[in-house]
Amino acid sequence: MGGPPRSGFPAWGIWAIIGGVVLIGAVVAIILLTGGEDEPPQQGIIPAPVTTAQSPVSDPAVDQLLAYLPAEATNCIETDLMSNIDAIAGVLCDLSTDARVTLDFLLYPSPEAALASFTSSAGTPNTGDCANGVEGEQGWTGGVNGGGRLLCGPIDDGRGGLFWTSNGFPVLGQVTSRAPDMTSADVYAVWQTIPDYNVV
Question: CATH classification of 60-197 is 3.40.1000, yes or no?
Fold first, then answer.
């Protein structure tokens, strides 16, 4: 007769368990040492903000454009020039005194090039009276820039907008409402809160 039945795992089973424990320990050690595999960063639709105070700008043209901007233009980000083929730099900014609007600025090689782009974009609009809600083009005088040309009216999606030049400066500016309930007269009133553009 044979002896009593054996109890417990067979030898090969014990070695399999030990091997599994060692393998799991090795994986855990690698994860702890390397911190695991990081997910690749998601590419945002909007680039990270570039401001004169916090992040140095590597593009000299953008640096030049930022130097022209009023102090109230903050959190500026570089923008794609897209159809503005004659512009050499562009930025989109917040207005520190009124969160209801955004400010866009384009830099051109010369004041003449900026004015030519404004004229091309404006076409032949009616004579405007932006302060009183009459949409169209008009001159403006005042501010530290001395004045220029001004076009007020809705942009393509119906929001109120304002587009202007500054005499002697190679820059075009645009202020646009973030909400559809702001008229071009409302936007003009906001624009007038920026000391650089106070009309006299």
Answer: yes
